[in-house]
Amino acid sequence: MSGTAPKYAAIDPDDREALIAVLRLIAARAGEAIMTYYVEGMEVRRKDDNSPVTDADQAAEDLILAALRQVTPGIPIVAEEAMSAGAAPDVTGGRFWLVDPLDGTREFISRNGEFTVNIALIENGQPAAGVVHAPAMAMTWTGTTAKDGTASATYTEANHPPKSIEARAIPAEGATVIASRRHGSGPELDAFLARYKIKDRITAGSSLKFCLIAAAKADLYPRFGRTMEWDTAAAHAVLRAAGGQIVRAGDGTPLAYGKPGFENPHFIAHGK
Q1: What does each C-alpha distance from 160 to 24, 31, 38, 114, 141 come to in angstroms?
Q2: What pLDDT tens digit does each residue of the chain (272 aa) get?
Q3: Which of 171, 187, 217, 223 is most buried by its number of CB atoms within 10 A?
Q4: Spans of all domains in the chain
Q5: Is the pTM of this model over 0.85?
C-alpha cells in the first residue's frame, strides 16, 4: 500500500454524531485497502489458532489503529491482529475500542463478499458506538447509544443517504432465524430453536447476521460456538441502538465486554 496517510482531528467521543461521521470515513478507507487485495489477490497464512489471515487484515488494521489514535488519543485499542501478536492493552478504565479489521476472512478468501470492517467503542462493558462496513457490497450500518439512552441506528447503501433502522418483535407467523454460514448447525442450536415457531432459516457470513436483525430482516441469531469480543462489538452497537440485544445463552444477561481474554460465551442475538 502506498500514499500519504490521512490526518484526523481529535474529537470528543461523547459527540456521537461527530464520532460516527469519522468512523464511517475510517471504515470506508479500510474497506478500500481491503478491496485492493480482494481484486489483486492475497497470500493466506495461518495464525496460532489455525484461523486464516491475509495482508488485507493487517493493512486494514494498521490504517484503523493509526486513525483512532489521532481521533481519540489516550483511549486503548483492542484489535484482533495486534492481540494475536500479544499486544493486550489495559482496558480497566472502562472505555476502549474493539476492532476487527476484516471480519469474515474466510468469506474474503472465498470471494463471496460477506466480510466486514468492524469498529466499536465500549463504555462500561457495553457497546456505545459502532460501524459495520461491508466494502464488497457497498453497505454500512452504524449504531450509537448516548449516556442518556438516546440511540440511533442507520443503514447506508452505496452513495445513498443513511436510513434509520429498527429491529422488530418476532412476527406472529414465526421467527426468521439467521445462522453462521460456517457454524450454523448442531444439537444445541436445534434444542434452542425447538422453543420457537420458525418461519424461515437463512445464513450469512461475518457480522452481517446482527445487522440483518437490526434492520428487521431476521429475528434470532443463536451462536453456540467460540467468538471473540471484536467479532461482535460493532454489530452489537448497531443492534442495541436499533432496539435489539445480545444476551448470554446461559442466563439471559446482556453480553458484556472487557472480559478476561476477550472471549465471548455462547449467546443469543435477538430483536425486540
Answers
A1: 14, 17, 24, 20, 13
A2: 445 678 999 999 999 999 999 999 999 999 999 999 998 877 788 887 778 888 999 999 999 999 999 999 999 999 999 999 998 999 999 999 999 999 998 899 888 999 999 999 999 999 999 999 999 999 999 999 999 999 999 999 988 999 999 999 999 999 999 987 665 567 888 899 999 999 999 999 899 999 999 999 999 999 999 999 999 999 999 999 999 999 999 899 999 999 999 999 999 999 99
A3: 223
A4: 16-164, 175-270
A5: yes
Q: What distances in angstroms separate CA 133 from CA 85, 150, 206, one per listed residue?
A: 25, 23, 11
Q: Round the CA-based radius of gyration of the chain to a whole number and report it.
A: 17
91 vs 258: CA distance, rounded Å: 7
Give 16-164's CATH code, choosing from 3.30.540.10, 3.40.50.2000, 3.40.190.10, 3.40.50.170: 3.30.540.10
From edge to edge, which strands make up the β-sheet containing 151-157?
A: 77-79, 95-103, 116-123, 126-134, 139-145, 151-157, 163-164
**DSSP character at residue 221:** E
Q: Nearest Cα to 248, choosing from 217, 234, 220, 269? A: 269
- 175-270: CATH topology is D-Maltodextrin-Binding Protein; domain 2 (3.40.190)
CA distance 208 to 134: 8
User: Would 16-164 and 175-270 be classified into the same CATH topology?
Assistant: no
Nearest to 108 by CA among 176, 55, 68, 185: 55
Task: Identify the residue whose cell numbers are 458484556.
Answer: 256
